[in-house]
Design goal:
The protein has 496 residues and is an alpha/beta fold. 32% of the residues lie in helices and 16% in strands.
Length: 496
């Protein structure tokens, strides 16, 4: 009863336009007209993940018992956030309205949209990207829990694509998990009509839908709209502030994927790691950091490996985790989408040569079609870890920072007074997967720094406060307003 009373008071104070309605969902859904399909709208006692209804269950298994991996919200929210107790603290209940639906205009039928509207609204909106091929619930722990407690409306999307399904080696679009695995998966984003160029447009579409929902629900427009996202979702943030300044006031990209039609990109960086890892792991001695194979991997831009520890009775290094879970399957996914005539396993994943393929296929044009330009038109903060072994920092975060600097220099305003602010905050010992810290305690979480960067961005946009300069966040430290010894890039990719 106390929750219901609190909900009603908040509605009356922040959304008088619908205060006389016991169920705001019919009005909210009507505002979208035919833009949404299969919509589910409900009044929620709590929009944080403390409420089990906030994140739907994963799809149940198929009748034959095989898992249905196309839609896995509960799994997705774990992929970018640490395990408890290091997740976003939840200190309050957040009553409001939640809406989840398909985007009706998507010809593939896979585009999905999520909107959360807290009763105690602060007048602002956050729109989240999705990492990998994850669902619109990907940011529930890392981003939604953080911002809805502060009163932000929260929206998300899935880049217009479902996740993946198990398949076999006979599938021409099948990708094995790693070079020694017999498990193959089929990514939906390798299917016809799922070009990666769609990723940016779905971020914009989510913002437009969310702004319509906000205005209908609260009776007024959002004062500000911010973009946040991780990995491929960080790429979406970059494109949001490059392409859609009328929709977004600024963004925070956490470990965003760098895309360039020349180099570097994932198709230039992953093959050397794939090619050399087996010799490194199986050499005499195994995991020798001074081996030629290890030097080749580091020369391709990767941070140093961490010495192996026993995991399930198997010696496992940091590179092992990336090799088993990401390197080859990601290379296959991107190659089959952007260079489909290449013989993935006949010609080889580790021997894929992007530069040579530029004259043998249209892969360069395919990558260039969704490349980041660096021409940001709203303030942007990148937060990235020095030990990222999927998107190495010099090949992705620093590469994008260089691209922004080049674009701003081309505009002839080197003092930056008329340029949108850009900052790169490097997290010493941070890596791409927060839960890898469970195995290697030397690593650092990035999530709290990304959330702090969001607060600094908002303060800069709304109060004209100066953003702290780009800097290396020391191991165990935090973003400093005036860094002294840690300004600029981290001197070392790893410190004990």
């Amino acid at each position: 009863m106390r929750i219901q009373l609190a909900c009603c008071v908040a509605v009356l104070s922040s959304a008088a336009a619908f205060a006389d309605s016991k169920d705001p969902c019919p009005r909210l859904l009507a505002a979208f007209g035919n833009r949404l399909a299969d919509a589910k709208c409900f009044v929620s006692t709590d929009l944080t993940t403390t409420n089990e209804a906030t994140t739907p269950l994963n799809n149940p298994p198929f009748p034959n018992g095989l898992p249905d991996l196309s839609f896995t919200p509960r799994t997705d929210r774990n992929t970018i956030s640490p395990d408890a107790p290091n997740r976003t603290p939840i200190d309050k209940i957040v009553p409001g309205v939640q809406l989840q639906a398909r985007i009706a205009s998507d010809p593939t039928g896979q585009g999905r949209f999520l909107l959360r509207l807290p009763n105690d609204w602060n007048g602002r909106l956050v729109v989240a990207g999705a990492s990998g091929t994850r669902s619109e619930f990907n940011g529930d722990f890392a981003w939604s829990d953080y911002v809805v407690q502060k009163g932000y409306a929260y929206a998300s999307q899935n880049k217009g694509v479902l996740n993946l399904q198990l398949t076999t080696a006979a599938d021409p679009l099948g990708c094995r998990l790693n070079p020694t695995s017999r498990t193959f998966v089929h990514f939906f984003d390798n299917d016809p009509g799922q070009q990666f160029t769609r990723w940016a447009s779905f971020m914009a579409q989510a913002a437009m839908l969310a702004r319509r929902g906000v205005e209908s629900h609260y009776g007024r427009e959002a004062r500000r709209t911010y973009a946040v996202g991780t990995s491929n979702g960080g790429y979406q943030v970059r494109r949001a502030v490059e392409l859609f300044p009328g929709l977004f006031d600024g963004g925070v990209d956490w470990e965003g994927t760098y895309v360039d039609g020349g180099a570097p990109n994932l198709l230039t960086d992953l093959p050397p790691a794939i090619l050399n890892f087996a010799d490194y792991a199986n050499g005499t001695p195994a995991f020798n950091p001074d081996s030629t194979a290890a030097k080749n991997i580091r020369a391709a831009g990767y941070p140093p490996d961490l010495p192996p520890v026993p995991v399930g009775g198997v010696a496992t290094s940091l590179w092992s985790l990336y090799s088993n879970q990401f390197w080859e399957v990601t290379q296959c996914q991107w190659q089959k989408r952007n260079d489909p005539t290449y013989d993935t396993y006949g010609s080889g994943t580790g021997t894929y040569n992007y530069i040579a393929r530029l004259s043998a296929s249209d892969v360069g044009a395919q990558i260039a079609a969704f490349a980041t330009s660096g021409r940001i038109r709203r303030p942007l903060i990148t937060v990235a870890g020095t030990m990222d072994s999927l998107l190495p920092i010099d090949r992705h975060a620093r590469a994008y920072a260089r691209k922004v600097a080049e674009a701003q220099a081309e505009r002839g305003d080197d003092d930056g007074d008329d340029q949108p602010a850009y900052r790169l905050y490097e997290v010493q010992n941070g890596n791409h997967i927060e839960n890898f810290k469970n195995t290697f305690a030397q690593l650092e979480f990035i999530q709290p720094h990304a959330q702090r960067a969001f607060d600094l961005l908002v303060k800069s946009v709304e109060e004209r406060a100066a953003l702290p300069p780009s800097q290396c966040i020391p191991h165990g430290g935090q973003i400093q307003a005036t860094p002294t010894t840690q300004a600029g890039h981290c001197a070392n990719l790893f410190v004990p």
